[in-house]
């Protein structure tokens, strides 16, 4: 099993209900990837995976859990310089913008 060649921060969000909103605070532009367990495993094996998120150019950003299950959040700097400090918190269910799914 190979690991991604770039540094990343991993947050195990455990079991979450669909519609739960998470807020991610970043110190710099970074990639934000919200993935279910199987896609996170594929990510760690550097395989093609799907996620909700993308390049976060502002902070904080909010993402909505698309379906109930075990979720992981990764913040990484692939394609960007430096390292972004990050934090994640659960917030009340509100209207959070949903970023499109992407494949890497």
Automatic annotation (TrEMBL):
Residue span(s) of domain DUF1883: 6-93
Please state the span of the N-terminal signal peptide per the UniProt entry. Answer: none
Quote the Pfam families the UniProt record gives: DUF1883 (PF08980)
Q: Which Gene3D superfamilies match?
A: Atu1913-like
SUPFAM superfamilies per the UniProt record, alphabetical: Atu1913-like
UniProt-recorded name of the protein: DUF1883 domain-containing protein
Organism name: Rhizobium jaguaris
Taxonomic lineage is: Bacteria, Pseudomonadati, Pseudomonadota, Alphaproteobacteria, Hyphomicrobiales
């Amino acid at each position: 099993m190979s690991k991604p060649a770039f540094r990343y921060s991993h947050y195990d969000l455990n079991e979450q209900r669909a519609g739960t909103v998470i807020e991610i605070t970043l110190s710099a532009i970074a990639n934000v990837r919200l993935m279910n367990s199987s896609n996170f495993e594929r990510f760690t094996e550097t395989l093609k995976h799907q996620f909700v998120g993308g390049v976060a150019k502002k902070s904080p950003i909010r993402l909505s859990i698309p379906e109930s299950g075990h979720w992981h959040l990764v913040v990484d700097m692939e394609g960007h310089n430096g390292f972004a400090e990050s934090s994640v918190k659960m917030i009340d269910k509100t209207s959070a913008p949903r970023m499109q799914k992407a494949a890497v």
